[in-house]
């Protein structure tokens, strides 16, 4: 054609190709060297991803509660379930196990009482005798007695289940804004509280949690844990030291039974609703726990809704205490889990970094803070990206718009995690990996991205350099097996 | 307190302050020097913004169709309406004037026929005799006759209005996904077509459009224009030269009547649905028009939905034609109006830059392309940000998540525009300025941001350096007056 002869006025296709490759090399996984087998797997993955993108209903563009049935049928999702994903570095103590287990197993145990609150929630308690009533709740009813009286317990159980999770058919109608969804979110924890802090259940719950993550091919956990007091049937209260020891015992037992599970560590968390002098006491206790349980205890964090809570800078004095005392208390702050810009709360990411945070929980607001973003990169502080959590808690609706798409395009250090999978109707880590890989990472990302995300979860963990090396070598074997087993 | 004595372990507050200031100085308007009066205005603006942010219903977090009544009552919005905003650089020819005017004025003119399509839309035509039927539409009905027969024309007129706009009470239900909303969006243009391409209406429409933007304190327009053939009552067809001359005549008349309106230029647009050889012919015509009407003609663009259209690189040969011929045809490409990542379409922004685009229309995807973003900054190519358009066409739901928040935090060159205000139930430029300033720019941005945005709209326009200087000096006088008149 006549065009060929006139080609010189066109942009140089080689320069174009060079720019596209440069950009691709910047993204998460863009500089990972792939074996031939990994290259082949990558092509399979990208083809699968393209098919999902071309479908009329693209799950990452939908609310997770509506997308979940589609995701369950996705062959890409089922591949990601099999993938060794490394560690889950941002999950909370009481959101590890599907709430069905709480109702179908725990509430069916002996001595389980329930009461119904004024605002249509429930509370539970285990007790050897009729417990004393609590404010704003009905009389305590022994579940065993109720269930014996009714023919069909399905409605009752489903009612209990719905109080323990945000999962619902029509999330847009049920949760019109952040205030409503956060209120319900906090209610689910209150509802579960009496179940999960019952000492025998507490241990079983953690064991069940480990089982679920292990079955989802997650080999390591870092648990944000409130380390609550637990109670026995006779009303005896166990302190925080009991709780940490319980974690350690259960973990030891679990690893003994599942030799390829690497382990777990605990990040002690307090609610940001407390004041500075209360935090001072908590920090002092955290320092003690850190000294007493250096193996399982990774550090400290503040939790709860940032938008309505106190900013980190308000706590500057108690947070400076460990360094003043010359002791180590690594921080793992939730920061930037917000849509608001330019407020005091919106400085939390910067302050987390100034307090030498080891990672940033969520960091949803980071991309709007170029100076802070550069600092986090320079310091090698990874962002814990929890896509489904951010969507359910209404920070973002279409996950393709998640700011982690920007971070991933720039190869910013980050890991994928699931925050509170049980509350969101998810489980383990694979649903969030699916959203991140299919919805956030873009079509050009393949096996290299998955590999870097998994390696990141070990690299940016709180493990010692030696433990990291060990964990990486275990992961590498699993990964190589996964690649070979899933070639076309 | 004991803390004071131990202060040394805390992060240095001066360093913190320095980082916060550094970041603030990077944002759009962050390096603008403000007069004392502007500083005072800035404080007023920020107080107003804070109040809006603290309200239980925050308009930028809501769909514009639901937010509009709240915005109308916002004193900040009413201040922004009075503000001299400079130019609107991204608006389309047939979306300038509220659709009520089309129905209440244009369809009440003599000889206006309507027909009803199989898929519940409408078509119009002016004709001195009964027009020939068109496929998939009812017989042509003379509106004058219909209206004479019915007592109350309100329902009929409201029905016509609803066919010309996307505005509706429950947008989430009406437009469940991008496919649906784009189909309805394209339908509104087809519905308006027979009205606005009727030669007498064509001129009146543009005049009315200029009136609305001028009343909204916009002094300059760059119009994406299809330059359609127009028709007379007797069926005579006028060509593109007539159309461009019509724009020039109407503009001359308008400026004569409104001496403080600076002017308008036209960016000739073709739909990306055509093929490469069709585009070759269009480009050849564009080159002719550019030579013939250098004053009013600014350049060329491709329009229509990117996700389902052909990527720019497909058109590389016809787009290279002007440079091959050694003639100038500035490009102003729509590019990156997409949520998808890593597809061919997602390379449009890069290709727009490689074809030396003067600006980027939307550039919604730019933040996910670090190399391309750096190139656009280096080349000084501004992004035309149209917040309401992106929300209504379902690229983003909560406008605080709009990627322009990232661009603004980095001080990336950008302008605010309104795309198709009439179709979105908006008007002029102020609604989009409100969304950008209140929802996207963050609490710390004040008068400096508004000033830079207004100046950008002249700096990044297609005007000559001399015209820019002239426009800027007119704008500056208006701005100074605005500042003084709105001090506390
Ligand atoms: Zn969390
Ligand atoms: Zn447009």
In whole angstroms, how far apart are the ends of chain A?
40 Å
Unreliable stretches covering 5 or more consecutive residues of chain A: 1-7
Task: Give the strand content of chain A.
Answer: 5-15%
Name the quaternary structure. Answer: homodimer
Q: What is the averaged pLDDT score of chain A?
A: 96
Biggest sheet details of chain A: 4 strands, parallel
Structural class of chain A: alpha/beta
Shape of chain A: globular
How many strands in all of chain A? 13
The spatial strand order of the largest sheet of chain A comes to: 1-5-8-9
Summed up, the helix count of chain A is 21
What is Rg of chain A? Answer: 24 Å
Bound molecules: zinc ion
Largest interface: A-B, 62 and 62 residues
Share in helix of chain A: 40-55%
Can you describe what's shown?
The structure is a homodimer of 488-residue chains. Chain A is α/β, with parallel strands linked by helices and 488 residues long. Chain A contains 21 helices and 13 strands. Chain A has a four-stranded parallel β-sheet. A four-stranded parallel β-sheet of chain A has the order 10-11-12-13. The model of chain A is unreliable at 1-7 (pLDDT under 50). The interface between A and B is large, with 62 and 62 residues. Bound molecules: zinc ion (ZN) (2 copies). Residues 90, 92, 224, 334, 361, 419 of chain A line the site of one zinc ion (ZN).
């Amino acid at each position: 054609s006549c065009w060929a002869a006139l080609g010189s006025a066109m942009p140089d296709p080689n320069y174009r190709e060079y720019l596209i490759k440069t950009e691709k090399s910047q993204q998460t996984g863009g500089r990972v060297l792939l074996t031939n087998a990994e290259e082949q797997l990558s092509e399979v993955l990208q083809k699968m991803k393209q098919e999902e993108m071309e479908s009329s209903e693209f799950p990452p563009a939908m609310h997770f509660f509506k997308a979940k049935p589609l995701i369950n049928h996705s062959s890409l999702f089922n591949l990601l379930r099999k993938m060794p994903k490394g560690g889950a570095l941002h999950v909370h103590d009481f959101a590890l196990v599907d709430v069905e287990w709480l109702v179908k197993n725990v509430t069916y145990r002996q001595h389980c009482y329930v009461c119904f609150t004024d605002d249509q929630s429930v509370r539970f308690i285990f007790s050897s005798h009729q417990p004393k009533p609590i404010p704003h709740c009905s009389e305590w009813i022994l579940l065993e007695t109720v269930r014996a009286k009714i023919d069909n317990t399905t409605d009752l159980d489903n009612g209990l289940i719905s109080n323990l999770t945000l999962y619902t058919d029509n999330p847009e109608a049920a949760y019109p804004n952040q205030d409503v969804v956060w209120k319900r979110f906090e209610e689910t924890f209150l509802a579960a509280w009496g179940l999960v802090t019952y000492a025998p259940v507490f241990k079983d719950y953690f064991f069940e949690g480990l089982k679920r993550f292990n079955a989802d091919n997650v080999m390591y956990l870092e648990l944000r844990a409130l380390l609550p007091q637990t109670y026995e049937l006779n009303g005896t209260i166990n302190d925080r030291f009991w709780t940490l020891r319980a974690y350690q015992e259960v973990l030891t037992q679990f690893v003994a039974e599942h030799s390829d599970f690497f382990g777990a560590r605990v990040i002690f968390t307090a609610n940001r609703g407390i004041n500075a002098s209360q935090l001072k006491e908590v920090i002092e206790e955290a320092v003690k726990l850190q000294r007493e349980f250096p193996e399982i205890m990774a550090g400290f964090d503040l939790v709860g809704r940032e938008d309505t809570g106190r900013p980190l800078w308000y706590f500057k004095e108690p947070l400076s205490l460990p360094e003043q005392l010359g002791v180590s208390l690594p921080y793992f702050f939730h920061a930037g889990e917000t849509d608001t810009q330019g407020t005091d709360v919106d400085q939390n990411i910067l302050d987390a970094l100034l307090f030498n945070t080891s990672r940033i929980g969520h960091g949803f607001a980071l991309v709007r803070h170029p100076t802070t973003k550069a600092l986090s990169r320079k310091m090698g502080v990874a962002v814990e990206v929890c896509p489904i959590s951010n969507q359910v808690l209404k920070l973002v609706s279409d996950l393709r718009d998640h700011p982690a798409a920007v971070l991933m395009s720039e190869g910013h250090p980050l890991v994928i995690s699931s925050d509170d999978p049980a509350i969101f109707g998810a489980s383990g880590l694979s649903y969030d990996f699916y959203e991140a890989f299919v919805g956030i990472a873009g079509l050009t990302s393949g096996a290299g991205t998955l590999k870097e995300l998994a390696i990141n979860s070990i690299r940016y963990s709180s493990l010692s350099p030696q433990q990291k090396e060990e964990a990486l070598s275990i992961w590498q074997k699993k990964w190589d097996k996964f690649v070979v087993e899933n070639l076309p």
